[in-house]
Amino acid sequence: MMRNDIEIRPLTRHVGAEVRGVDLREPLDDDRFEAIHQALLDHLVLFFHDQDITPDQHVAFGRRFGELHVHPAAPCVDGRPELMKIHADASSPFAEGTRWHTDVSSEEEPPMASLLHLRIVPEVGGDTLFASMYAAYDALSDTMKRILDPLEALHNSDVHRGRYEQVGGGLRREKYPEAVHPVIRTHPETGRKLIYVNAPFTKHIIGMKPAESDALLQFLYAHCANPEFQCRFRWRTNSLAVWDNRSTQHLATWDYYPATRSGVRVTVKGDRPRH
Ligand code: SIN
Q1: Count of beta carbons in the 10 Å neighbourhood of residue 25
Q2: What pTM was computed for the model?
Q3: Which of 30, 40, 63, 162 is the most buried (most CB within 10 A)?
């Protein structure tokens, strides 16, 4: 589809599109930004190639979507907390984001979008997978939807606590965030319903016994991992991916050890999830 000389090429039916005809070193007028914003709502994750941008240009693009979010604990670049470092190499004890997740859903107002720019990519491997949580919701039976619709779950950031203590990262707030969110969330811009639980951050469903909550969450994680709801992105040097962090989950494969994969993520503040 073409709009304003911007070309949007869908990767799959449910999720992912490549955007052509945009140079993110140049300012975007409102019409062109609106075309990108609409494409993000339609395709949930957008991929741009050959974007040799500076950190300031990356930040400027992120700010078009909204105010920037600062991660509570992740390492940053050049002492700028809004530039989250994404890096793994031969000395890394782990790589970030290797399980299906949405970014920091432990916050009361989790980010609405993340923009990841990779400067160094392995020759092969290091792909990122994205999954549509709308498609996952739509595929449930009406009976299961009725069971899930009123439920809420606790999300916390235990996953960060252990990891950042291990690498000596400091916490930027007084406490690790935690929050209760609907299990089924209505997207604030599209009005569509989606599944909003993810394994690293969601701890339990409120009001259920541990065995009941575990069984239901395990069912949902397996259901959400169906390849029919996914796309897989192969990075190149200077690719940039923007994902709607409300309607998707993503997973970074760490199949390239001991090669290096390195870049910067800018994250955009979101609002409180609603039923
Ligand atoms: C992340 O979870 O933000 C990292 C994704 C990636 O490295 O591909």
Answers
A1: 12
A2: 0.95
A3: 40
